[in-house]
## 1
Amino acid sequence: MESTTWSCVIGPEGRGATEETGEYLSRNPARLDDVVARVRLAGPGTLLDAAEHARTAQREWARVPAPLRGRVIAGFGRLVEANKESLAGLVTREIGKPYVEALGEVQEIIDTCDFFVGEGRRLYGQTVPSEMPNKQLFTFREPVGVATVITAGNFPVAVPSWYLVPALLCGNAVVWKPAEYAAATARALAELAWRAGVPGGVLNLVYADGTATFEGLERALQAGVVDKVGFTGSSAVGSRIGELCGRYLQSPCLELGGKNPMVVTPDADLDLAVQGALFSGWGTAGQRCTSLGNLIVHNDVHDEFTARLDEALRAAVIGEPTGDVLYGPMLDQKFADNFERILDEIGGHHKVLGSESVGRIGDSAPRATFRGDPSTGLYYHPVLLDGMRSDDTVFLQETFGPIVGITTYDTLEEAIELGNAPGYGLSAAVYTTDPATAFRFREGIGAGMVSANNSTSGAEAHLPFGGNGRSGNGGRLSGMWVIDQFTRWQSLNWDFSGTLQKAQMDVDTV
Ligand code: UN1
């Protein structure tokens, strides 16, 4: 058991907190008696202090030439690489993510650093022609200032790095409020960044609960010490953050939930579609924002596809996440409780396949193979529902658990309409051997990310990541697109004519 209690504000210089609200125990969800971290939680005043501290440190950081900031990011990436196994091991221990996936998650940080090292030498501005002679126009990318980054714990290191790396590279300071249930992992990542040379005041790690975070953020916005808010989490919390930021004329970067559809057409390779559905529907216990939510299957292949998927699900191995399993436990108690609520709401008209039972494993043996001891952690049966209707709550809401529902369609237009119906727009997939079907699907579906013959989950460091509708406000993380979140354009007009030239006045005289 972890004996030390960590302060609620952490920087390499061990800055203390001005206001604390309590203590949080981060537990291993596969072995609930294993306390991974014990942390103090900050009060709103401490969040304000952290932002003020960041404001001062940012000015100096912005003066470091961008290519040198890029070198710090390069060093960070190499340190993460050198500590890949231990960081992945900590992810597995703290949130129950299967170790192989945790390794993949850490790789995402390394890839993100690799991409942004180069951006340090590329933060290009433009030279722009003027309407007038003897005058030159320029544009520059300027850092926004202080970014408050609030992240979920299902991707406790990769997703935070999607914000931290570009924000720091672009010359901003960050106040990072990670999910409490991923406290130890967050600290391990921040420590690597500080060791790589990110100054303490430029990256501030603050532990806080939701109430204090909202209050602290409001106070910091009011005081004018936060210039950008990045948030990954639920659509409900995202919309509250959007409202709050709007009051202070801020446009946050919101990466929210998903109800990601997968369409299986009559010409699809059904075995490939089964693999994709299994991985993105139940992998990570369905706890990715990109997890598969609704399977939309053509009537002609419904019976065959459903039988094969049911069989694959029963053959799956779940359990102890240190082993090679499809999925391990729920992230923490709060997520387990939420999933139980969703299971309670399932209407009676569905056919439940895939498992003999629904609910916590331990109350009854799973039909899928279970490795480990189900009684020590937050393990749940896989659920596959058939006969979903488009007005079912479980069809319309994100479930964030190991559950997928099947509905059927006849025309591609109908499939697209069903895919768009829940109003989210993060990720969508189509399985087809006909390129025209794939392109028509891409055009019609309202998702930010579309896959053809691949699952709804997954991300590459140089491709825009983000969604529309209930999935976010259109901001994109990753690749060069995220730079627009963490810089603002400034123009310079430089007149060397020696006379007063007035814009829009002299056009006819030329
Ligand atoms: C998230 O769940 O918040 O799609 C992000 C994936 C990830 C990103 C998920 N790389 O699997």
Note: The mean pLDDT is 94.
## 2
Amino acid sequence: MNIMDIFISVLIPSFNEAENILPIYHALTKELSHRIARYEIIFIDDGSTDQTIEWIKELSYHHPEVKYVALTRNFGKESAMFAGLKHARGDAVIIMDADLQHPTSLIHSLIEGYEEGYDQVIAQRDRAGDSFVRSKLSSLYYAVLEKLVDVELKDGQGDFRLLSRRAVNAVLQISERNRFSKGLFSWIGFHQKVIKYDNTTRKAGVSKWSIKKLIDYGIEGVVSFNHKPLRICLYTGIATLLLSLLSISIMFVRILFNGIAVPGYFTTISSVLFLGGAQLVSLGVIGEYIGRIYVEAKQRPHYLIEQTNVGEDVIHVKEQ
Ligand code: UDP
Ligand code: MG
């Protein structure tokens, strides 16, 4: 396919990114305008409380290729991306952050990958520039995740990637509410190509990830892709039960022969504590899954739209 024939959609989930809207628009235009004939840049305003939507609207007023989907409140990046994917009409869709941490210069390598026939072209970053603690915690997390999760997840492979129309349609078929896109992108499969790049720091504004959000996201990654944590609970439960049965029998036999010797303060307290802890952990894990079932059962929409200049009805579903 000639590069000129491709219709590219660039999706940018944006939450309080007012200072970044113009810079990312210019950086993208520089890369796209001379080489790609048809493209659209869709900003998804994820309930920003600053001037983000005003900047986007101003741009879209002058530049018809700029589209926006403004959500009614902050639904989180996952839902914002889902809204973007629903509204994108391109033959290929590129997802990137608003803060210029995803180099726009990679766009051509992404599109080249698409032309070579890949359905997903993934930009993988190294962790230079991340704080020491965050990068160490991330690698530890991915090491654990690799053991626990059934889909393949790699450190540094995030949402910055190109998806072909086929891949986008596949992702859209997955309607679960608790979305962990990295996992979903990996789950859909298709031919994938990885392009590496050096990490850059955020140009303006602050990261929207608090420690709590990161931990929540981490738990999401583990529990949304398998039931192994439940299985681990079951195994620890069985092991604790067998061990306590063993020690009870030993104690019983001892009492039969020696009579009651010591009051046994230590053993009582330690077993109560240990069992209490094991039970709480297990309950917590079960709760995680039940919580997800609850959220799915409610079948609420993933997001609500306040205003948009992309019609929901014009979703382009061209199969390749
Ligand atoms: N974002 C969003 N909704 C949120 C949080 C973040 O749409 O609730 C967007 C944000 O505007 C940015 C991207 O997701 O374009 C990545 O966010 P951020 O830069 O804060 O994450 P980090 O790079 O620190 O992982
Ligand atoms: Mg960022």
Note: Residues 312-320 have pLDDT under 50 and may be disordered.
